[in-house]
Amino acid sequence: MFKDDIKYNLNIQISDKQLSQFETYYEFLIEYNQITNLTRITDREEVFYKHFYDSLTLVKSIDMTNVRNLCDMGAGAGFPSIPLKILFPNLKITIIDSLGKRITFLKQLLKKLQITDVSIVYDRIENFALSNSEIFDVVTARALGKLPLILELGLPMTKIDGCFVAYKSSQYIDEVDQSKQALKILGGQILNIVDIKLPYSHGDRSLIVIKKTRETPKTYPRSFALIKKKTL
Fold this sequence. Notes:
It comes from Mariniplasma anaerobium. The chain is an alpha/beta fold. The protein is built from ten helices and seven strands.
């Protein structure tokens, strides 16, 4: 079912090895979730569709054949970056997270999945972004915060002509309206918004694709305290 849905809805062929990796991912996630709270979703079908399939919907918004490296901000239990890495093994992934327990889980997960070429960074996103300007083809953020906030964290790391992609619920209109100033300051413009229905009534997903059109001023991102106090 999952394999067929990936094939027919997302136009991706998934091998038996990759399917086995998703099974291993699920089993380890549920096992680890008993000692560290990583997700409230534990039902097998829900994990496969609300986490794995949802992560892979990125292919509906950008051409993955042109993506060499991707940064996943605040990946938590590895979404969307690890499912994407499973299906696109040549993709170079950088994951940034500031919670040590999640970093430990991700490192162990990669060993179990026998995945290499993933850089896991234990740091605050704004700190990493200041010293890694405009180096990623794609930067993603899923369930991380309001759009003006995550734009300030992610756009500085995005290459010119690259894309920042925000995974959002269908209730995104107000956030887009609130982001006009941030886009102007940070050098981005909305390229596309892709609305997706997950299979079997598992919910709606909207992918907001923002193209980096010019260099971001080096003063961004600001400290997180300042971002929270007053977003752009």
